[in-house]
Amino acid sequence: FLSIALSSLEVILGVALLLRWYLRRTLYILLALLVFFGFLTFYSAFFNKVTDCGCFGDFLKLTPWTSFVKDLVLLGLWGIVFMGQRFLRHRFVQGTAGLMTMTIASALAIGIGVRALGHLPYFDFLPYKVGNNIGQLMKPAAPARYKYTFTKNGETKEFADFPTDSTWKYQSMTVLNPEEARPVITDLTLTDPEGNDATQQLLTGNKLVLIVQNSNKTDRDRFEQLNTLFAAAAKSRKNIGVMTITSTSSGKFDAFRHEMNLATPYFFADATVLKTMIRSNPGLMVLHNGIVRAKYHYHDIPALFEIEKAL
User: Fold this and answer.
1) Is the link from the previous residue into 127 a cis peptide, with omega within 30 of 0?
2) What's the CA gap between 304 and 267, in Å, rounded?
3) Residue 69: CB partners within 8 Å, gap ≥ 6?
4) Which partner for 185 in 12, 65, 77, 137 could form a disulfide, CB atoms 3.0-4.6 Å apart?
């Protein structure tokens, strides 16, 4: 909720600044925010607390130092507006009209944030977004290309292929295309209760996947509706395989599934991977041969015909 409050406040202050609504007060509140975030980004950059600032989520990743420079630029722009505020005293909207405009802007900013908290994000920039082929993203986009450095008789030479001449002495090897040679998805592994690798089961055929990141924190009230959906999916002509993936320990999840009457096959994966897959606990994913066809928050559990349509 703090993230919603801060992001909403930034939008509200931005609208107030554009409309010159209580300009002096708006500028002082903006200054407080800029100083706070400037200190925060400097601290995280100087002490290497995080690798990216998270200002724009996965849409645009900034290093802490880049984010700190951004805050300095914003402080500079704030100073320009503050020094020139005598030329900006006339409000674009005044009285009741101004109050109504700010009320609408505030309601929209807060409402969008609150809705995003209880549903899936409006935009998904992660590897498991709808339309992505998980199996393909687990493979390199291109074969790795290397540069080999060797020396002989004081001469240093670079090779595209490992030399067959044994008189050259190896020094180093560099990957020329690390981004292309590294798969987008590197950490997805499913195991069954016996510890066997079951990743391919996820990537084959039509699948309705229930993701329970943490059984202690999941919304238990949704499982009656989910069980009804799974029973219907088992009878579908689309031959839909239903499965559950969790990061909860085997013993705890076994007790949980009996309590919830959850009769699907279940598998285990890393908690961070499951959080990357879907921001919902529990959440649903629909896959066809590893291609993500649809994703659903537990507040938006679909009917069977919607799943069949997605497939």
Assistant:
1) no
2) 23
3) none
4) 137
Digit-by-digit pLDDT tens for the chain (311 residues) are 777 888 888 888 888 888 888 888 888 899 998 898 888 888 887 787 776 666 666 666 777 778 788 888 888 888 888 887 777 766 666 778 878 888 998 999 999 888 888 899 888 889 999 999 999 999 988 888 889 999 988 889 888 888 888 888 899 998 888 888 889 999 999 999 999 999 999 999 999 999 999 999 999 999 999 999 999 999 999 999 999 999 999 999 999 999 999 999 999 999 999 999 999 999 999 999 999 999 999 999 999 999 999 98
| 42/65 Cα distance (integer angstroms) | 7
Structural tokens at position 212: 């329970």
Domains delineated in the chain: 2-117 (no CATH), 146-181 (no CATH), 199-310 (3.40.30.10)
